[in-house]
Recover the amino acids of this structure.
């Protein structure tokens, strides 16, 4: 067997699995990109060749997501974590309120940054339920003069995901979609802004994608550092400074891969099938495995579960590792187990995990 082609069952939470076809194409093009005699990493970000890659990725992003003309597509750096600060820095003033819907650690981190720039408040929270659910839509009470309302569309650590987003009327809704962007179709027009670190569904780490309504940029704060203004990047087509060139190339290729797979509808269907295979193993286990998320809030991207005691859990993780499964440990802050089933994780890997779970249960009950 050609060991260089051996792929593991990769359930990492991010950085995570990338499509094999994309990796193979990148490998083929690595040393001599389209006859230039150099790799993408070695060429100027101001060269015509790179501009084609860059603009191609933006165009493909617009096409796949049906992004309306009133929105900018930006490729930034600093991860989703920098967005936690850039959002209030650009859109919040010291006396102004912004609503935060708290569904996990990433919402908490976003909230904390907003406290430095204005007056965030909790619109709703599922903290008292150990973030095992998405708060019910009826619980929301935000103010019509809020600068924005912020939510985390998929909670990577707790394994919960929004299925229907709240209608915030004239108040811009801002969503951290880091761990479920491109996993299903999304109506961009419902949002003032969407942002995501690339390293789960979009590509390698290093690029952060921001989709933002242009009118928000016109009203944004101006007394902030140039590089932290969204308008700086919008005005320079995300080429204000040296961008993560190779990451943008990979992002473009992953977008092409999704299109070849049939687009977001087809990807969503596949993700549903994949997640069901693993949730079924939990639900049919008579309590041997227990899911953390309540059934109606379950994530199709991060499946979190526990076993009856920590020793057994350790045994499970250790045997899984031996059997070739990677990344099944829960986040270090919560423990337990987590299988991340992003777009590039194949159905066969999910089936293999489900079979392993059933086999482990039979052996240890
Ligand atoms: N938001 C969510 C939902 C995440 O899952 C993560 C990272 N796993 C972050 C934000 C932070 O992203 P980054 O590491 O790109 O700053």
């Amino acid at each position: 067997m050609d060991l260089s082609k051996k792929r593991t069952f990769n359930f990492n939470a991010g950085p995570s699995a990338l499509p094999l076809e994309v990796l193979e194409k990148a490998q083929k093009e690595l040393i001599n990109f389209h006859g230039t005699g150099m790799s993408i990493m070695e060429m100027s970000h101001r060269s015509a060749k790179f501009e084609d890659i860059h603009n191609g990725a933006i165009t493909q992003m617009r096409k796949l997501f049906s992004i309306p003309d009133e929105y900018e597509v930006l490729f930034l750096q600093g991860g989703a974590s920098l967005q936690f600060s850039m959002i209030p820095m650009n859109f919040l003033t010291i006396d102004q309120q912004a609503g935060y819907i708290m569904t996990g650690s990433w919402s908490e981190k976003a909230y904390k940054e907003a406290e430095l720039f204005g007056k965030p408040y909790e619109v709703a929270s599922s903290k008292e339920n150990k973030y095992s659910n998405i708060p019910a839509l009826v619980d929301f009470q935000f103010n019509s003069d809020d600068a924005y309302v912020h939510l985390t569309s998929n909670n990577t650590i707790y394994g919960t995901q929004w299925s229907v987003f709240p209608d915030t009327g004239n108040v811009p809704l801002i969503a951290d979609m880091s761990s479920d962007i491109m996993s299903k179709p999304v109506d961009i027009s419902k949002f003032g802004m969407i942002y995501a670190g690339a390293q789960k569904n979009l590509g390698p780490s290093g690029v952060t994608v921001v989709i933002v309504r242009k009118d928000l940029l016109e009203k944004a704060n101006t007394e902030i550092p140039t590089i932290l203004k969204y308008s700086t990047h919008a005005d320079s087509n995300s080429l204000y400074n040296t961008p993560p060139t190779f990451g943008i190339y990979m992002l473009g290729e992953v977008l092409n891969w999704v299109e070849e797979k049939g687009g977001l509808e087809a990807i969503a269907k596949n993700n549903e099938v994949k997640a069901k295979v693993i949730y079924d193993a939990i639900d049919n286990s008579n309590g041997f495995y227990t899911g953390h998320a309540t059934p109606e809030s379950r994530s199709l991207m991060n499946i979190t579960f526990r076993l009856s005691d920590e020793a057994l859990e350790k045994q499970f993780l250790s045997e899984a590792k031996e059997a070739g499964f990677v990344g099944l440990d829960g986040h270090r802050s919560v423990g337990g187990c987590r299988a991340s089933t992003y777009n590039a994780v194949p159905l066969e890997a999910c089936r293999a995990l489900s079979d392993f779970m059933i086999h482990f249960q039979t052996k240890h009950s």
